[in-house]
Amino acid sequence: MSVFTYHLVKTSYILALKAFFFSPKAKQTPGLIYAEVMTAMTLGSPIFSTSRILVRQIAVFAEWENEEAIDDFLETNGLGKTLAKGWHVRMNYLRQWGRISHFKIPKETRELENSEAPVVAVTLARMQFLQIPRFIRWGRPVEQLVRDHPGTTLALASIRLPRTVSTFSIWKTQKEMTDMVHGYSAVPAPERHEKAMKERDRKDFHIEFTTLRFQPISEHGVWNGKTNFIPIHKSI
To answer: Which of 68, 90, 99, 146: CA 20 to 30 A from 168?
Structure first.
């Protein structure tokens, strides 16, 4: 089964732009299935603010044939060497809602036996341009919900202009994540996510959209001076 990674690194403007315009391709990168190179964003920040789009911060969501391919990329590829200076998590696929092109999402789904185990959630969407104002209106409250939720250890958004947007979040437990999705969290206005999903079902914001759930395998490096974002889970 393939292995997924999510990378974060802060670099120079030049290297960030180079990564954006010269994203790694599967044909030129051994073991790579597909990679989405994006610019990091601050969840829930005002749309027109310097904190919204963080040009020097690169976020990469990628699918690989195996972990050996990841190691080789980080050691020998130009972008890989840049990403190796940051932080990344390696993940096994659990399940998917929706669909997205380019990635080879496994057909088989898995469930964690223990709801207290940590999980990683990634959303990826290709926007309909005319629906972007609606998406912002309904999406920002959800961003704030996830950003401020006590169940997350790391949460952010990312964008690849003109139409790709993504979110990434690490949850202390699978239960805390599913409670957030269904509006059961003990936080102010817990129904924000559920309301946004109903609005999306009423009239879709996207050309394509998927939510992916993963089991973290390992994390590597440092992000914003911190590490160990994946909680240590003790089996009962």
So the answer is: 68
pLDDT range class, residue 203, cuts 50, 70, 90: very high
CATH class of the domain defined by 3-221: alpha beta
Structure tokens at 192: 């924000």
CA 6, CA 62: separation in Å to the nearest integer?
A: 6
- The DSSP output letter for 144 is H
| pLDDT tens per residue across span 147-163 | 999 999 999 999 998 89
Which of 157, 209, 151 has the alpha carbon at shortest distance from 45? 157
> What residues contact residue 120 under an 8 Å CB cut-off, 6+ apart?
6, 89, 91, 168, 169, 170, 171, 213, 214, 215, 216
Integer Cα distance of 223 and 230 in angstroms:
13
Other C-beta atoms closer than 10 Å to the C-beta of 150 total 10
| Distance from C-alpha of 40 to C-alpha of 19, rounded to nearest angstrom | 13
Q: With 0.90 as the threshold, say if the pTM is over it.
A: yes
Task: Return the exposure string of 169-192: e unless at least 16 CB atoms fall within 10 Å of the residue's CB, then b.
Answer: bbbbbbbbbebbeebebeeeebeb
Return the ∠ at Cα 102 (arms to 96 and 107), rounded to 5°: 35
